[in-house]
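Q: Here's a chain of 278 amino acids. Please give me its 3D structure as tokens.
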Amino acid sequence: MRGRFTGRRLAPAAALLLALAGCTSSGGDGGGGDGGRPRSAGPPVAGRWQPQVGVAWQWQLSGTVDTSVDVPVYDIDGFENPAAVVARLHDDGRRVVCYVNAGAWESFRPDAKDFPAALLGRGDGWDGERWLDVRALDRLRPLMAARFDMCRAKGFDAVEPDLLDGYANSTGFPLTAADQLAYNRMIAGLAHDRGLAVGLKNDLDQVPQLLGDFDFSVDEQCAQYDECGQLSPFVAAGKPVFHVEYELAPAQFCPAVRKLGFSSMRKHLSLDAWREPC
């Protein structure tokens, strides 16, 4: 897997160039290095984990997961990692977030054949992926429920559902903001019904409407695009913003996001183990 970009953020060709450049970047600690032992991952709230504002994290979606990074929260691919990896991280006192794609079909996933062809739209810029028609709540609900059941069965504490802003992209479907709100709330409900915390991925324009439905935010490049202020309601509500930048150096974004209380770091676009935290 690798970092995700919606159409308004980066065109596929630019993403490829950035990925190639990122692989040669230097710097960073390759491990913990968050200024001493990070803050606690946070206690469960009413039986469900609620991460704390400012908690350090690691986001790795490609390669064998490096379980030695000294942070309280890991975000890893739900399909590609077995329960044993989650258990090992738990044994080390970490909370673990399950990455799944909720907004696009992926040809390489084991459940790809379960998605009706009528729900598959235009490509999202990555090989083998097509946007989903999120208006089809009744048909997508059991498919996403099965994915979240997988996350729960493997012992994950939370879900990161990707591509929750199809309405703002060229999907091939006439999606509206109202369609996206309904779908995103369905996704949050499916996670909560299973005792899993859930994060709002990007979709900054709908933060005011969705803040009460999600337990944290996962954002890419809000500093580069001067959007971080739109995420401040999460912090004000006691919910963390897990944030990454790919192109900016830490000196260019860390001072500002520290003031906002974000959990921020620089990553390669491939989202391998390398990290450079604020």
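Q: Can you summarize the key feature?
A: Residues 12-277 form a domain with the TIM Barrel fold (CATH 3.20.20.70).
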